[in-house]
Design goal:
This protein has 248 residues and is of the alpha/beta class. The chain has nine helices and seven strands, in the order ααβαβαββαβααβααβ. It has a seven-stranded mixed beta sheet with strand order 3-2-1-4-5-7-6, sandwiched between helices. α5 links the parallel β4 and β5. α2 crosses α3 and α6 runs antiparallel to α9. The protein is globular and about 55 Å long.
């Protein structure tokens, strides 16, 4: 299953299960202070929640994504400003943007160094790369405990701060700053998380085979089903890695 086809499959549920515009506005507010003046490209724009949040703040935003069904939803929020394209071969001319944004996308692009070369190509001198990347984390609770049980299914992420720094240096991007800080608050019920996992919405569940599902995932789902107050939201504050780079 390619990344594009997998996101095609979850497009109808993506906003509902990932926080929708509320989460997009939270992410945009965190990013906006690091943007340079000028146009912004969000790579992996998805349904457009972050890009639309930036547009609401007055930024000139374009978006690109590999999934047409995801883009159909983004186009409703950003009409005429999104297109199909691959992070590894961006459909834009050299030096087209003053900012490129990746929000929880770099681990999915298939070849992060190549994506960063394309980023450097489309950035103007002095332009900025803003990346939200790496493993997010929240304080322990009943739902986080279930997700921790599934962590063995997640491959090593290529977008660690160290790996991103190394790839950025190779293409002439200098890091301005990095932080691991609160990013968004989310209230999730056990029933909502159960539905998300049963529908295989997280990317690390897309290709899990039947034996592994029975051995690893089903016990986690059973633990979720056993929780009391299935419709009571558990409020979580998620922290993420945010890095800012400048093109020399």
């Amino acid at each position: 299953m390619t990344e594009a086809k997998a996101f095609d499959r979850v497009a109808d549920d993506y906003d509902r299960m990932r926080g929708g515009m509320e989460r997009g506005r939270q992410a945009a507010a965190q990013l906006a202070g690091d943007l340079a003046p000028g146009p912004v490209l969000e790579v992996g724009v998805g349904t457009g929640i972050v890009a639309a949040g930036l547009a609401e703040l007055g930024h000139d935003v374009r978006g690109v994504d590999v999934s047409p069904p995801m883009l159909a939803r983004a186009a409703e929020r950003l009409p005429g400003r999104v297109c199909v394209g691959d992070a590894r071969a961006l459909p834009f001319a050299d030096a087209s943007f003053d900012n490129v944004v990746f929000t929880h996308v770099l681990h999915l692009v298939g070849d992060m160094p190549r994506a960063l070369r394309e980023t450097a190509r489309v950035l103007r001198p002095g332009g900025r790369l803003l990346a939200v990347h790496g493993d997010p984390a929240a304080d322990p609770d009943e739902l986080v405990a279930v997700l921790d049980r599934l962590a063995v299914l997640q491959p090593r992420r290529p977008d660690t701060p160290e790996d991103l720094d190394a790839a950025a240096r190779e293409v002439g991007l200098e890091r301005l700053r990095h932080e691991f800080a609160p990013d968004y608050e989310r209230a999730t019920t056990p029933r909502q998380l159960l539905e998300s996992l049963e529908r295989r919405l997280p990317p690390y569940l897309w290709d899990v085979d039947d034996d592994t599902w029975a051995r690893v995932v089903e016990p986690a789902l059973a633990a979720l089903r056993a929780l009391p107050d299935q419709d009571r939201p558990r409020v979580q504050q998620w922290r993420v890695h945010r890095s800012v780079y400048v093109r020399s």
